[in-house]
Design goal:
heterodimer; A: 110 residues; mainly beta; six-stranded mixed beta sheet; four-stranded antiparallel beta sheet; 0% helix; globular; B: 111 residues
Chain lengths: 110, 111
């Protein structure tokens, strides 16, 4: 089973700033996935990140707001840009078989 | 499009009793996977159990078992001998890449 490390685990940010979340997998995986969980809601896929190509974004999510990097087969970052209070959520990454997730990043925008 | 329905927003169970959390799904794919996750208040998503659409036996993992009824498109999670630490949100998900999640069921275990 893959071990996925995600950081930071939580942050409180000022509106208008950006936060970059890191996700590290302990083995090489082809695809990595980024999800958002708004308060009291279920998980929604933001994008799928393949190494060496641009991420594929789901409807309602755009690269300018959520730029993703995938520099190698074990690492990815998600940036939440120009944050507003509506971006307050838990952000989770997963990789490979998708069964396992990182610990999540609880973001609060004030 | 794939869809997961969890009809129980909240459930209560007495400690040491068994509880069933309902999950129905909709997919036109022949090959798919079904997952259950536990999400405690910390926010992390903990993988519990997996059932492949071609698996003939119901999946089991310790106190967790998955009651898979393919014709009815249901994949209920059974937790036996509930413990106080089982209190959490539980999500059912289906995969034909990527995962699609249900709305979740909040389980509260009462001493």
């Amino acid at each position: 089973s893959a071990v996925i490390s995600q950081k930071p685990s939580r942050d409180i940010c000022q509106r208008g700033t950006s936060l970059t979340i890191q996700c590290q997998v302990d083995s090489q995986v082809t695809m990595m996935f980024w999800y958002r969980q708004q308060p009291g809601q279920s998980l929604t896929l933001i994008a799928t990140a393949n190494q060496g190509s641009e991420a594929t974004y789901e409807s309602g999510f755009v690269i300018d707001k959520f730029p993703i990097s995938r520099p190698n087969l074990t690492f990815s970052t998600l940036t939440v840009s120009n944050m507003s209070p509506e971006d307050s959520s838990i952000y989770l990454c997963s990789g490979g078989t998708e069964a396992f997730f990182g610990q999540g990043t609880r973001l609060t925008v004030v | 499009a794939q869809k997961i329905t969890q009809t129980q927003p909240g459930m209560f169970v007495q400690e040491k009793e068994a509880v069933t959390l309902d999950c129905t799904y909709d997919t036109s794919d022949q090959s798919y996977g079904l997952f259950w996750y536990k999400q405690p208040s910390s926010g992390e998503m903990i993988f519990l159990i997996y059932q492949g659409s071609y698996d003939e036996q119901n999946a089991t993992e310790g106190r967790y078992s998955l009651n898979f009824q393919k014709a009815r498109k249901s994949a209920n999670l059974v937790i036996s001998a509930s413990q106080l630490g089982d209190s959490a949100m539980y999500f059912c998900a289906i995969r034909n890449t990527p995962l699609v999640f249900g709305k979740g069921t909040r389980l509260s275990v009462i001493a």
